[in-house]
């Protein structure tokens, strides 16, 4: 699961515009990106190494969350 530059995210149960957020372990949002579709790539090249949560939401409701490790 370690990631270096790009996180590929696929959420099958989304229809329409959604948002993906990268959150650190202190709960601070580091990055957000809106997308339309089931797949998105989040560039985390400029993010320091560490553990993060990737959260996908639609209309303010979280639909998926995953933990990643950035090298």
How is this fold's topology laid out?
Layout: E1 2-3, E2 6-10, E3 17-24, E4 29-36, E5 39-43, E6 50-58, E7 61-70
Parallel strand pairs: 1-7
Antiparallel strand pairs: 2-5, 3-4, 3-6, 6-7
Tell me what you see in this structure:
By secondary structure, the chain is mostly beta strands. 0% of the residues lie in helices and 66% in strands. The chain has no helices and seven strands. It has strands spanning 2-3, 6-10, 17-24, 29-36, 39-43, 50-58, 61-70. Strand 3 (17-24) and strand 4 (29-36) form a beta hairpin. It is globular, with a radius of gyration of 11 Å. The termini are close together. The relative contact order is 0.36. The mean pLDDT is 90.
Specify the helix fraction band. Answer: under 10%
Mean pLDDT: 90
- Helix-and-strand structural type: mainly beta
**How many whole angstroms does the radius of gyration measure?**
11 Å
End-to-end gap: 10 Å
Question: Tally the helices: what do you get?
Answer: 0
Number of separate strands? 7
What is the ordering of alpha helices and beta strands? EEEEEEE
Major sheet strand order: 1-7-6-3-4
Biggest β-sheet: count, sense, barrel?
Answer: 5 strands, mixed
How would you summarize this macromolecular structure in one to three sentences?
The chain is mainly beta. The protein has strands spanning 2-3, 6-10, 17-24, 29-36, 39-43, 50-58, 61-70.
């Amino acid at each position: 699961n370690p990631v270096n530059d790009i996180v590929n995210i696929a959420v099958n149960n989304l229809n329409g515009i959604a948002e993906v957020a990268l959150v650190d372990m202190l709960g601070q949002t580091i990055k957000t990106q809106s997308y339309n579709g089931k797949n998105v790539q989040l560039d985390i090249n400029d993010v320091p190494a560490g553990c993060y949560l990737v959260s996908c939401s639609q209309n303010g409701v979280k639909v998926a969350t995953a933990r990643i490790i950035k090298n």
